[in-house]
Amino acid sequence: MAKSLASLPFLCFRSPLVTPLIFGLLLQAPFTQASTITQPNFVLLLADDLGIGDVGCYGNDTIRTPNIDRLAKEGVKLTQHIAAAPLCTPSRAAFLTGRYPLRSGMDAVNDYRVIFWNAGSGGLPANETTFAKILQHQGYSTGLIGKWHQGVNCESRNDHCHHPLKHGFDYFYGMPFTLISDCQPTETPEMDRAFRRKLWLSTQMIGLITLTAVLGRLTGLISVHWKTLTCLAGFSLLFFISWFSSYGFVRYWNCIMMRNHGITEQPMVTDRTTSLILRESISFIERNKDKPFLLFLSFLHSHTPLLTTEKFLGRSRHGLYGDNVEEMDWMVGQVLDAIDKEGLKETTLVYFASDHGGWLERQEGERQLGGWNGIYKGGKSMGGWEGGIRVPGIFRWPGVLPAGTVIAEPTSLMDIYPTVVHLAGGEVPQDRVIDGRDLLPLLRGAVARSEHEFLFHYCGVHLHAVRWHQKDTGAVWKAHFMTPIFSPPGAGACYDRGFCPCFGEGVTHHEPPLLFELSQDPSEATPLSAATEPLFDTVIRKIGRAIEEHRRTLTPVPEQLSVSNVVWKPWLQPCCGTFPFCWCDKEGDNKLVDL
User: Fold this and answer.
1) Residue 16's pLDDT is what?
2) Which residues span the membrane (predicted)?
3) If 500 and its partner were Cys, which of 151, 366, 484, 538 is the partner (CB 3.0–4.6 Å)?
4) Which range marks the domain in which residue 217 is found?
5) What is the pLDDT of residue 36?
6) Residue 524 lies in a domain
């Protein structure tokens, strides 16, 4: 810039036409051309289970989120930002690859819709190309801090075929799995709770039958051979061991922390997890400040058991959940301060979102432990209703993106993929379908409409709804082909199940589909019909043709979340020690522990 200003007198001397040109340039909007900033840094902040209604800048006036609100004030807020799936594993697979999760086999045909064990064999396939891998090839330092939940091993406990370092990240610190209440010894177990109860009941019944038979034999009331009783007792013991060896040690098998390929805590010490994740994030920024970097901070907040440090307990008006969200907001502020401290604010694109909607059914007694989705119907696990998939979406890049902008166009978490790749100077893969769209023209105001004409809303591999963005009118139509059956009726969630299902007796099929115009009815309160909407038949036909075209782009792939892939396999269990004696704490003397 200094060179350009120094040459102005010479230019003015050469031509009187330069003066009006200079004034015209000075009157232009003061935003830097993105192309003049080669390879900006990227800080991607992804919350876990955070509802769109939990954030101040999206309408919450009781949970304090000043740092997330500051991002929106200084950047661009998206009000129709859509997750590609309503649960963690498939949504994050789509985020990382820019593709609907069923294209990579990361959505389920059964009820096991996420990765259940670190010792499962399913995960993000090696032939999928993440944005991190492309940025790595562009010379970026790439780091993932926090939650992964995309699998670990395939054939042995150390092959790490699904590990973050195999998918483009130079550095990983965090949980290869996801945070669950089983990780907190004082909390009620969460993982597969209903199935675990059935196993306990079956064990007790088999044990009771065995004990009754033995007593009957001893008292002479029943004529049973001792060999038969021995076999029955052996079966009872084997049945118990078969399931208790996995479900009885969930905290040791799933609640672990890793640094790169090594386990640092097994089980994790939850009292210091937040401190370590924050310090690792700031340390990554400080170590890489002199070269382009990608930091993907994948929060454990606000997933149960809502790990919250003592200084934030009791601070909010929404109990432990609100405390946890406010602590996450504080962590966002600490990361932003680190960016400012290193003088990186103008060269860093910051993005904040949630992986899907809040978990309405997550309760313990009178305590509400899940999030709130504002005016939107439904929540986590519901692939069609807005509450399960509409999430916060905020971008900040000072000098490039106009501050205080609100965009209501349909966008997707999958859009991060091409946006980041193009800004880094890379190219998206040409040998596969990429469902995301480059958001930069929309974010900068160069175009008024989103590139998305249709978005397909899956629940597992089952298509529940389709959104059509009618660009000539701005209307956003949404047709529901299946919806979950709420229980109790009218409750807005599936409280008796804990999760709403994707198929079977727990859903209603709609023919004709339920149709809503979201720009007029964002809460999806009043379905339209041919009698009330003149365009009803036209819209349904248009969406039907789009579904046919979309399905022609799908190709069969191995199911990563099949039952055989999600079950616990002891030979795949990550272990700090000699299996099954897996225990270690390598962070006990780490100076990063204290905040």
Assistant:
1) 42
2) 199-218, 230-250
3) 484
4) 193-247
5) 59
6) no
The pTM for the full model equals 0.91
Domain of 59: which CATH number? 3.40.720.10
The 10s digit of each residue's pLDDT in 301-339 is: 999 999 999 999 999 999 999 999 999 999 999 999 999
CB 312 within 8 A of CB 330: yes
Smallest Cα–Cα separation from 385: which of 536, 529, 524? 524
- Do residue 76 and residue 224 come from a single domain? no
Question: What tokens were used for 292?
Answer: 């382009």
CA neighbor of 106 nearest in space, from 120, 122, 119, 95:
122
Q: 């003066």: which residue's tokens? A: 19
Domain tally for the chain?
Answer: 2
Decide: residue 289, CB within 10 A, 0-12 exposed, 13-18 middle, 19+ buried.
Answer: middle
Question: What are the C-alpha distances in Å from 365 to residues 59, 104, 259, 369, 389?
Answer: 27, 39, 37, 10, 26
Q: Which helix (H) or strand (E) holds 174?
A: strand 171-175
Contacts from 333-338 at CB under 8 Å and sequence distance 24+?
A: 333/66, 333/67, 333/70, 334/278, 334/282, 335/43, 335/45, 335/278, 335/281, 335/282, 335/285, 335/297, 336/67, 336/70, 336/71, 338/281, 338/282, 338/285, 338/286
Q: Is 337 helix (H, G, I), strand (E, B) or coil?
A: helix
Clarify whether 88 is annotated catalytic.
yes
Q: Does residue 495 form part of some domain?
A: no
> Which structure tokens are listed for 232?
């029955």
Distance CA 374, CA 72 (A): 18
Residue with tokens 């492309």: 134
Q: How far is Cα 153 from Cα 300, in angstroms, rounded to an integer? A: 22
- The answer to whether residue 19 is domain-embedded is no
Clarify whether residues 222 and 341 are in a common domain: no
Residue with tokens 């990563």: 560
| Annotated active-site residue in 88, 500, 575, 582 | 88
Query: Are residues 345 and 368 located together in one domain of the fold?
Result: yes
Whether residues 129 and 226 share a domain: the answer is: no
Q: Which of 149, 452, 462, 464 is catalytic?
A: 149
Same domain, 291 and 433: yes
Q: How far apart are CA 537 and CA 512, in angstroms?
A: 10
Asked whether the beta carbons of 353 and 55 are under 8 A apart, the reply is no
| Residue 591: predicted pLDDT | 54
The Cα 388–Cα 82 span in angstroms is 9
- Residue 593 covered by a domain: no
The pLDDT value recorded for residue 593 is 46
Q: Across the strands, what pairs with 78? A: 393, 407
Task: Measure Cα distances from 562 to 106, 112, 115, 116, 129 in Å.
Answer: 9, 8, 10, 11, 22
Q: What length does the chain have?
A: 595
Of 211, 226, 247, the one marking the end of a domain is 247
Residues 215 and 123 both lie in one domain: no
Measured CA to CA, the distance from residue 260 to residue 280 in angstroms comes to 12
Phi, psi of 295 (to 5 degrees): -115, 115
Q: Would you state the pLDDT for residue 95?
A: 98
Q: Is 239 helix (H, G, I), strand (E, B) or coil?
A: helix
Examine the residue annotation and report whether 149 is marked as an active-site residue of this protein: yes
| Low-confidence residues in the chain, pLDDT < 70 | 1-37, 589-595
What are the tokens at 180? 């669950």
Question: Which conformational region is residue 422 in: left (phi greater than 0), alpha (psi within -120 to 50 degrees), or beta?
Answer: alpha
pLDDT digits (tens, 9 = 90+) for 501-547: 999 999 999 999 999 999 999 999 999 999 999 999 999 999 999 99
